[in-house]
Write a structure and sequence with these properties.
With 475 residues, the chain is α/β, with parallel strands linked by helices. The chain has a domain at 98-126 and 231-423: Rossmann fold (3-Layer(aba) Sandwich). The protein is 39% helix and 13% strand. It has helices at residues 3-10, 68-71, 103-109, 130-143, 156-167, 185-193, 205-219, 229-235, 237-245, 262-276, 296-303, 316-327, 347-356, 366-378, 385-399, 421-428, 432-438, 460-470; strands at 12-16, 24-26, 41-45, 98-101, 116-120, 148-153, 173-179, 197-201, 222-223, 253-257, 285-291, 360-364, 409-413. α5 links the parallel β6 (148-153) and β7. It is globular. The termini are far apart. The structure holds ligand F0G.
Length: 475
Amino acid sequence: MSAVVKIMTDSAFQQCLNADCRATFGVDQTLFACPDCGDLLDVSYDWDRLPIPRRALFGSMRVDRSDPLNFSGVWRFRELLPFAPPESIVTIGEGQTLLRGSDRVGSYIGLNAGGLLLQYEGLNPSGSFKDNGMTAAFTHARIVGARRVACASTGNTSAALAVFCSATSFGFRAIIFIGTGKIAYGKLAQALDHGALTVQIVGDFDDAMARVRDVTDRLGVYLMNSVNPFRLEGQKTIMYRILEAMNGRIPDWIVVPGGNLGNSSAFGKAFLELKQLDLIDRIPRLAVINAAGARTLDELFNERGLRWNDGRPEMSLASDYYAELDAAGKKASTIASAIEINRPVNLKKCLRALDVMDGTARSVSDQEILDAKACVGAGGLGCEPASAASVAGAKRLREEGIISPDETVVCVLTGHQLKDPTATVAYHAGDQELFDSVLGSRGVRRAGFANRPVVVANQIDDIIRAIALYGEPES
Ligand code: F0G
């Protein structure tokens, strides 16, 4: 190990989030909660001892793309997540993503031309943002010598886990826990195709999450959910890539769907550190968007006043809310199955992110999500329902006047359209039975965005008439 690398890895540690504990542990330990008080852990750094290139964010340094660490959209920012020696990094080429402006979607939201940028994470090897986190967590798993790795998932974490196990040669074996009937087919297909042991438990994600913790404790299996603080280190880089693509300009807003609240937590940590390191002079605002049928953050933040409170949030507000949900027999329910979560494990870290980024939270209906998704698709990027919550949420905040028309907004599209073809086809297609079974029961109406397939007789004249009805392209 070179001297510089040794300083890097010696300067990283795990630290308890609890303001009254703050216990620290080595990065060579396998912990998914503070052993002293049970709270979440962060990966922290002694930045004064670390080399931080001033231009780390803005690209031009890492031109040799034949080096896998420079190719990776996560590890080309390795100075900003310096917990691993380069030779232990597990990468499969994650993070080759895209920041693309869309005036069409921007005008749907109500923004001026040039105001909307979409950060498309569907381009990752497993088709969602999860790969950013997995590369970091697998690197840690390799460092601590783990082999069996597990997660509970609404589908994308498990897909990423399965892909990383099958794409690498370090002997990792994937065990995934999913709720029954709760996972979109594209994601289930990935888990099965990539050879993961797929355990379908009777229950939903919140149940599966509780069980996977028991199992990993009991069997000493390495836990890959976002309570694993190394996951979030990788997910910070989504923000670095946005700044990189904007050539150092800082957007006014980052808007992201919220489920287990790992991403939003990671984004807050990214900006907190960039500011501490004096690499940016301004922090964008954050909006975290729940689905209306799984709106824990919106409820706790907006209705019950739960705040970070300098590291001492009143978490009894959350446990009271969970007890009320249980008493009413209320389970999370939304077409955006990826964020069908009532008990977000990273709630406390997300409160910190909202504090750091002067953030807010909202929830949007399944109708708003699917209409926004169709608009994103018509604008040239395909995303799954949960991802479109960011666009629907930005529209809502724009209508409320919280976002103004001249601001620059980045909506994160977290997962690829092909993850959940059923929702897309049910929304667009003419098949009433499919519509009723997938969307009708959720109170979704067919909206003006539905792009119905046209059924025509196999006759040239009928086909030409159908094309004529479609109209001429706009000049
Ligand atoms: N978008 C997509 C496409 C997701 O898959 C998820 C989470 C989220 C948004 C929410 O992100 O949890 O960081 O707030 N999916 C997890 C899973 C829960 O198991 O795949 P978060």
